[in-house]
Design a protein that fits this description.
With 132 residues, the chain is of the alpha+beta class. 36% of the residues lie in helices and 23% in strands. The chain has helices at 11-19, 49-70, 116-131, and strands at 24-31, 37-40, 80-84, 89-95, 103-109. The chain has a 5-stranded antiparallel β-sheet with strand order 2-1-5-4-3. The longest helix is centred in the middle third of the chain and has 22 residues, at 49-70. The two termini are 16 Å apart.
Length: 132
């Protein structure tokens, strides 16, 4: 059990914990319904966080639609998504929150310094603490 397990995380603490994941470069919480950034860890220079949040939301909607069409009649629930590019790993963790609506934790990881299994595990635990 880590030091932060055992207490409820607020939105303010969530990104601090996410950014403590080894290899984390930047992160944000995105409202999946509106496509707006709820919290930002400090986007990379030259990146518009609001545009990024909106584009991520559209990507998520397209992915969910595609999965629903490929599995007709089944309920498709995505826990997380991973996209690896030549610049880094992009990890998204879906949250059904008691806040305003469904949120997504977006985390960009360094290719060389990150451990994907550890990052997924830590995001799962962070999301559980946030939802408690």
């Amino acid at each position: 059990m880590t030091a932060w397990e055992g207490h409820v995380l607020g939105l303010d603490d969530c990104l601090t914990e996410v950014m403590a994941i080894p290899g984390a470069l930047d992160a944000m919480l995105v409202d999946q319904t509106s496509g707006m950034a709820v919290a930002i860890s400090g986007p990379p220079q030259g990146v518009d966080a609001e545009s990024s949040a909106a584009a991520l939301t559209e990507t998520l909607r397209a992915t969910m639609d595609g999965l629903a069409r490929s599995c007709p009649g089944e309920t498709v629930r995505i826990d997380d998504m991973l996209v690896t590019t030549d610049k880094g790993h992009h990890l998204l963790r879906f949250l059904e929150t008691v806040f305003e609506g469904p949120l997504v934790i977006y985390l960009r990881l360094d290719l060389e310094r990150s451990n994907l299994a550890l990052a997924r595990y830590r995001l799962l635990n962070i999301s559980r603490q946030l939802l408690t």
